[in-house]
Amino acid sequence: MGDQHNRRVMLGKQGEAYTADFYRERGAEIIGRNISYPIGEIDIIAREPDGTCVFIEVKTRSTLDFGGAESVTPAKRRRIRAAAARWLGERSGPAKAGVNIRFDVMLLVSNQQGGFHIDLIEGI
Q1: How many domains are contained in the chain?
Q2: Fewer CB near the last or first residue (10 Å), C or N of the chain?
Q3: pLDDT level of residue 11 (50, 70, 90 thresholds)
Q4: Mean pLDDT across 42-56
């Protein structure tokens, strides 16, 4: 069981790194990773070129057998939004004032070539 857990953790970290690179390639700046509060957590926070602050939930799977985007339940969405509100509340100035925000889900399924099939859902 320990090896399986370690593989899942490693796959998750690879998925988060891939997602951060994906957003960087689109011109975004990664401004936060693995932000955790008792009320919820945020995998990645990015600032897009237009200033939009994007809170990204990353779901990395080895197969689709265990669900994908539907695993981001309404309760999980509430926790992400609560964590985002807390994170924003701790900021001042341009990081907070009048900022546009968006919540995305990046679903990654590993493929046999060592990469990922991606499904990006913007604005959940």
Answers
A1: 1
A2: N
A3: confident
A4: 94
